[in-house]
């Protein structure tokens, strides 16, 4: 009897497939390391400032991890704009469709993700300069000996 119970338990564990899907609390966009909640408030054309970026990545639906300029709602390529008279620290405009923009309000700082290092070339440039500097110093030290 114990063997049959154990066998059935193992069969249930092996055949039971788990389904995972993340349900987002609200639609958001990430720009410049900041998370903005997308609202239903439309931004009129005359308030749209310069283009500041676009959606480049989508969050992982299993883990919720994201990096760079991401959105859980808008497709890649969706553009971000400044709103005249409002700091980008407060809100930005997101292009919904041709001639229509919606306001996205700052919520919090985006969490760090190691892929963010690849979206910004500045850290790599600093690393290359440091490596070159160390290499040149070692070369000078060897030539003095």
Explain how this protein is built.
It is a single chain. With 145 residues, the protein is of the alpha+beta class. The chain has a domain at 21-113: Metal Binding Protein, Guanine Nucleotide Exchange Factor, Chain A, CATH 2.170.150. 28% of the residues lie in helices and 30% in strands. The protein has 3 helices and 6 strands. It has helices at 2-15, 116-119, 122-144; strands at residues 28-31, 34-43, 48-54, 79-83, 91-97, 100-109. It has a 6-stranded antiparallel beta sheet, with no helix packed on it. Strand 1 (28-31) and strand 2 form a beta hairpin. It is flat and about 80 Å long. It starts with a helix and ends with a helix. The model has no long low-confidence stretch (mean pLDDT 80). The chain crosses the membrane at residues 117-136. This is DUF3592 domain-containing protein. Residues 1-21 form the signal peptide. Keywords: Membrane, Signal, Transmembrane, Transmembrane helix.
Quick rundown:
This protein has 145 residues and is an alpha+beta fold. The protein is built from 3 helices and 6 strands, in the order αββββββαα. The chain has a domain at 21-113: Metal Binding Protein, Guanine Nucleotide Exchange Factor, Chain A, CATH 2.170.150.
